[in-house]
Amino acid sequence: WGLARLSSRTPLATSYNYDERAGNTSFAYIIDTGINVKHRDFEKRAKFGYSSIAGQTGDGQRHGTHVAGIVGSKTYGVAKKATLIAVKVLDDTGSGTMTTVIEGLQWALQDAQKNKRVKKSIANMSLAGSWSQAMDDAIQAATVAGLLIVVAAGNNNAETAGFSPAAAPGACTVAATDISDRRAGFSNWGAVVDIFAPGVDIASTSKDGGSVRMSGTSMASPHIAGLAAYMLSIGKYRAPVDMCNYMKGLAIKDVVTDPMGSVNLLAYN
Q1: What CA dihedral angle connects 194, 145, 21 and 193, to 10 degrees?
Q2: pTM
Q3: Which CATH superfamily is domain 2-266 in?
């Protein structure tokens, strides 16, 4: 339902309408638990990039593969032709540190710069920890360099400002809605939220080759990362803050119930 919601002005739509370029020139860095790059639904567009976890390169957890699928898998993806790059910063139990996460973010920026594709790239961070100045600084550096960072608001049903990377000023921060356009009960909220996107009972790729449904702002964020990758392939390059604002400008206004002081904007393509 999440994809269909992105291309409909009203809830409960069943089909996803999109431009067939669909991210074909875009690169999405998935900063997460890794990706099962062999999953058939990625059509060989998913690649291993980097791991800051010693001895682990795949996705033993499932989270990253699911997130990547929402960004760019053939069946479940917003940008169905984007190239997906696995940046593993969380281990196979889903744990990591601010250090491992920042290392991955810095690698993604350097890789995009090295391959001269910053203006065709976005990064998704569906992860959260307590607020960190170092994380804010790393995201600011990437943003200034031209790389859009899309982040999950977090799942604490709390004010988003206390969490990283959600509170980072340069990031595009995404809260979650359910199929009825209500703010998901778990979703963080508040002034630092930029936009809402579907995040409850979202079907996507599973690490063992099939599909699975998951819920979280972790699922909302890749809808926006995918939308940004999609926009980069069908339109002109926009600087990170401008791209986030562009997506906010396209969004449906005042349909989210219980936004809890967040901006009332629901993603639309």
Answers
A1: -10
A2: 0.96
A3: Peptidase S8/S53 domain (3.40.50.200)
